[in-house]
Write a structure and sequence with these properties.
Length: 508
């Protein structure tokens, strides 16, 4: 086009310029609209991403950090210490009996319990501590400071759990085991949680309800435990278990009246392994059921053998909390008694006070079955738990067994004497007999008799002995150290014992 055209026709040039301006404005508006839309999408994406990130870092049930969120905080803490110095501790907190309570009361109560635990952990460790839920019944805490600070925090956690947990009509006790590992003292970031968990397991091995800090020797202990558990699995099949019997002595006549069954493990290399060591392992790793069945059957078999040779001895068997929660425990005991021709009244079930006080449907059902079956029930380790008169009245107990911790201090401690006196009074009010275990001195014996105990048991009279040794002492010598066997133990076997359907004979 001729450049002079626009000078000759000025209207055309103005129109074209206006059109270009309109087009530019439209393009700019479209660009602005698209950019604003992209900005809105970007902000929404960031919001959703942040929300999802926050949700993934917080446990839905308790509101505590998840493991991934805890790991992020842990990384930050390590960076701070590496750059500025100082220290921090990781506390690995494991509830000692959460699985039991969850099974007994149901998942709903279990969830409420976990929420309450989380709340208490946050309250007792303060706003600067970070808390995480690792798994059901397991938590972790980050506490700023060296081991002294970590131990103080662990002590606060232990103390806050001492208060009962209450849900509607349910009231229960809860304890925990805590392992402490410090950074940088106890190794690299990668090993910190593992070391805290190892320390926690060491606490559990020693009964729980305490805390300890990591030590390099603990790794060796865990490996030793794993080896021992593996050997324990085969001990029953290899015939390495044996029953020992410790006589019970009448406090008035000082004559043998019965015997408690005690399990011993004859290890081919370790020698005699203490039940204090292997029974908790058997309970923790699911072996106590088979071992407990063997003890019941073997105790009945030994008692039947004694009866055939003229010794009618009542035997007492310790029943674990695991066994009390088995639906068919009473039926299995009855079957063992029937196979060996023994009367139910000649079989004593010794159940620890803590287990007896468990207000669970399964445990209470087992007690009801024991009452109907006619078993002789003894509440063991009495005085160490939280029994009430109302709870004791509901149990089919025939006797209370005073814990040896009170007996050993009896001669020196007025408090121990007061506790024993109180237990005797409670038993008298409920028409129960009282047995004192762990009697080792004549002074203890005299005090217990004067306080009103009915039966005594301990090294003063006899250590636990094999069944054959007790039989020999009873039948050949009729004496045990400085005490005799009650004459009625040797009376002729009555027809009622040979026929469980007949009325049982009176107990010696």
């Amino acid at each position: 086009m001729n450049p002079g055209y626009f000078s000759e026709h000025p209207g055309v040039g103005l129109g074209l310029a206006a059109a270009c301006l309109v087009l530019a404005v439209c393009v700019l508006w479209l660009y602005w609209r698209e950019r604003r839309r992209n900005l809105r999408l970007s902000l929404e994406l960031k919001r959703v991403s942040h929300q999802m990130s926050t949700q993934s870092e917080r446990d839905e049930l308790t509101g505590l950090l998840t493991r991934s969120g805890f790991d992020a905080v842990l990384d930050t803490q390590v960076q701070k210490v590496d750059s500025a110095g100082g220290a921090f501790c990781v506390l690995y907190v494991a509830l000692d009996n959460f699985g039991l309570l969850n099974d007994a009361f149901g998942q709903g109560v279990g969830d409420r319990l976990l929420k309450d635990v989380a709340q208490r952990l946050v309250q007792c460790t303060g706003p600067k501590a970070e808390a995480c839920r690792i798994a059901a019944g397991e938590f972790a805490l980050i506490v700023n400071g060296a081991l002294a600070v970590g131990r103080t925090a662990a002590s606060r956690v232990i103390n806050t759990f001492a208060e009962s947990f209450k849900f509607d009509l349910i009231q229960t006790q809860l304890s925990c085991s805590i392992g402490i590992a410090s950074y940088p003292e106890h190794g690299s970031r990668a090993k910190l949680m593992g070391h805290a968990a190892t320390a926690m397991r060491s606490v559990k091995l020693n009964g729980g309800s305490a805390f300890c800090q990591y030590d390099v020797k603990m790794g060796v202990e865990v490996r030793e435990q794993a080896i021992l558990v593996n050997e324990l699995r085969n001990a029953l099949e290899l015939g390495q278990f044996e029953l020992y019997f410790q006589p019970k002595i009448d406090a008035v006549s000082l004559q043998v009246t019965a015997a408690e069954v005690l399990l011993r493990w004859h290890h081919p290399e370790r020698g005699l392994v203490s039940p204090v060591l292997f029974i908790p392992l058997a309970e923790r790793y699911g072996l106590i059921g088979a071992i407990g069945n063997w003890v019941i059957e073997e105790a009945c078999r030994k008692a039947a053998g004694w009866r055939e040779r003229g010794l009618r001895m009542r035997v007492a068997v310790n029943i674990s909390g695991y066994q009390m929660r088995e639906d068919d425990l009473v039926e299995r005991i009855e079957a063992a008694l029937h196979r060996n021709g023994l009367q139910p009244g000649r079989f004593t079930c010794e159940i620890t006070e803590s287990v007896a006080m468990e207000d669970t449907k399964v445990t209470q059902l087992t007690f009801d079955k024991m009452r109907k079956a006619g078993f002789h029930v003894s509440i063991d380790d009495f005085g160490t738990g939280y029994s009430s008169l109302a709870a004791l009245r509901r149990l089919p107990a025939a006797e209370l067994k005073i814990d040896r911790a009170f007996v050993c201090d009896l001669e020196e401690s007025e408090e121990a004497r007061s506790i024993v006196k109180s237990i005797v009074s409670v038993a008298a009010a409920l028409h129960l007999r009282v047995v004192a275990e762990g009697v080792e001195t004549v002074g203890q014996c005299d005090l217990l008799v004067s306080l009103g105990c009915d039966e005594l048991q301990g090294y003063l009279f006899s250590m636990p002995v094999p069944a054959e040794e007790l039989e020999r002492l009873a039948l050949d010598e009729h004496r045990l150290k400085n005490v005799e066997f009650r004459p009625s133990l040797f009376s002729s076997t009555l027809a009622a014992e040979l026929n469980p359907g007949l009325r049982p004979d009176p107990l010696p």
